[in-house]
């Protein structure tokens, strides 16, 4: 599983001109599920995601996590993150999880984050989504195990 985090001032996801997920300050997280991922990976990455210190403290250092900053998460499934881009000019998706399994693990990640006390908004799995954001920084990190 790969999580691409972007610190945002605000973000939203629209599907067919309808907003399906919206947050104020927090993290926009694109979620790529790989075929070897399981519930252990979900739990470990949920813990890292919630505790990842990317928000500034009073001295301006990245020393606060999303809970301490009073932020929220917007989790958006993005299977292209699981692509193998090591060769050629076309990505290979052979390492991506099958859609049913990917959706199950995406939902498990949402539940694991919510269980840790963080507000979560979401995109719509498998939909053609338009993602709107105001990046804060910019600050972007890729989390994976």
Automatic annotation (TrEMBL):
Recorded superkingdom: Bacteria
Keyword RNA-binding annotated: yes
Enzyme nomenclature, EC number: 3.1.1.96, 3.1.1.-
Subcellular location: Cytoplasm
Motif Gly-cisPro motif, important for rejection of L-amino acids: chain residues: 137-138
Gene Ontology annotations of biological process type: D-amino acid catabolic process
Record keywords: Cytoplasm, Hydrolase, RNA-binding, tRNA-binding
Broad class of where this protein is predominantly found: cytoplasm
Task of the protein: An aminoacyl-tRNA editing enzyme that deacylates mischarged D-aminoacyl-tRNAs. Also deacylates mischarged glycyl-tRNA(Ala), protecting cells against glycine mischarging by AlaRS. Acts via tRNA-based rather than protein-based catalysis; rejects L-amino acids rather than detecting D-amino acids in the active site. By recycling D-aminoacyl-tRNA to D-amino acids and free tRNA molecules, this enzyme counteracts the toxicity associated with the formation of D-aminoacyl-tRNA entities in vivo and helps enforce protein L-homochirality.
UniProt family annotation: Belongs to the DTD family.
NCBIfam families per the UniProt record, alphabetical: D-aminoacyl-tRNA deacylase
Protein's UniProt name: D-aminoacyl-tRNA deacylase
Organism, as annotated: Alloalcanivorax marinus
